[in-house]
Amino acid sequence: MSTDGLLKALNDSQRYLDVVHKPHLGKSEAEWLIETTVSNFAKYYNSGFIEYRKSVAEAGDFASVEWTGSGATFRDVQGREFIDCLGGFGIFNLGWSHPKVVGAVQAQLQKSPLPTQELLDPLRGMLAHLLAEITPGDIQYSFFVGSGTEAVEGAMKLAKLYTRKSGFIAAVRGFHGKTTGSLALTGKAVFRRPAMPLHNNIYHVPYGDADAVEQQLKIAREVGNDIAAVVMEPIQGEAGAIVPPDDFWPRLRQLCDEYEVLLIADEVQTGMGRTGKLWGVNHWDVAPDIITSAKALGGGVMPIGAFMATPKIWSVFNSNPFIHTSTTGGNPLACAAAIAAINVTLEEGLSEQAAEKGDYFITKLREIASRHSDIYTDITGKGLLIGQHFVNDDIGYEIASGLFKRGVLISGTLNNSRVIRIEPPLVITREEIDTILNRLEDTIQGLHTSVSAPIVGGGETNIVVA
């Protein structure tokens, strides 16, 4: 680290701050920012993002670098407008820059952005109180962190402390995070294998198969593999908006009671109205012992996660309040955003909006899929957590990139596009949904690429989409 290097950092940081303070950029400034962003990602962050992000690969002369947004639309730094059908994988339930959330954070910023760590910060108590009012069953206490994976880690630790057991049962293709504890629960080899060995005494079963959970609990009891908790997503998100059978969650509750293990609902993605209910488990009137939240909890403005539990389970934290701490988790800015997010979600009836708009969206998508059964295999989901299932990755990627060219941002990368999630802000309008559907039809009609798709009985068949 030379003096020249520090001087360059000083000058670069000032130039970056100048960009932060500018509401708009001129043409040359925007082009400089795009080129700088691509270079910085490639050299200093992760070059793989440049290869796998369609927003870079499919944008034409200049990569699409996000800049600002409102509601369910956003604009890149060059002013190109997109309908957001991705929603940050569940962050933007309230849309981009909801004024009530932004206003709450700005107001708190003028007072105290971070806690003293010694005095009692009021917003943390306020948010915990609100969560006790809106969570299912007897859940009452909360701990706040900065992300979903931290929330899952905390839930695992709490379960182990309370039960004095170490094992967990999770689902194949489930997703709970990528830090080492939550990664042990995640049911995808592509994420797990490179980091092995992980937390031991973890058992995976097919999602939605309550009999498999019961069998695993029986075996664990017989051989002495002490199970602390069963951990499941109410609806699997990463796997493609997979909805379990209606008896699955009620049976999980019954089995956990019978075998004296805890039931953890990972609501990081499904919570805060995404599936048409405030919490995913509300679809089946099930109360878990521990519940996690993140993503939309920050109102699309601040990162915050939480894990919550009943007083009985939380007693192990109350008896030693320093057994689990976080320097910045639950800071006043994040709590202000979450308080506002809860208020907006309830005030604007966003759960109900998600249910109504989701029913419409899914019905229309199934009509499209039935007309194009050569490329679709299924449409799944509840509310505005929807999965489009394609015959292979090639078709999925062509759909995603084609929609992006037509001004619709949707999930889909070069390495995993067979299932593409539709996860727009819950404030998306019916007109915007219809626009997406029209552009989807146009994308399908515009495909002229021959791809190979597996057929029943083995072998391959060439499908030409015209």
UniProtKB/TrEMBL annotation:
GO terms for molecular function: identical protein binding; putrescine--2-oxoglutarate transaminase activity; pyridoxal phosphate binding. It comes from the Bacteria. The keyword Transferase applies. GO terms for biological process: putrescine catabolic process. The keyword Transferase applies. It holds the Pfam family Aminotran_3. Keywords: Aminotransferase, Pyridoxal phosphate, Transferase. InterPro entries: Aminotrans_3 (IPR005814), Aminotrans_3_PPA_site (IPR049704), Class-III_PLP-dep_AT (IPR050103), PyrdxlP-dep_Trfase (IPR015424), PyrdxlP-dep_Trfase_major (IPR015421), PyrdxlP-dep_Trfase_small (IPR015422). PROSITE patterns: AA_TRANSFER_CLASS_3. Its cofactor is pyridoxal 5'-phosphate. Belongs to the class-III pyridoxal-phosphate-dependent aminotransferase family. NCBIfam families: PRK11522.1. This is Putrescine aminotransferase. It comes from Tengunoibacter tsumagoiensis.
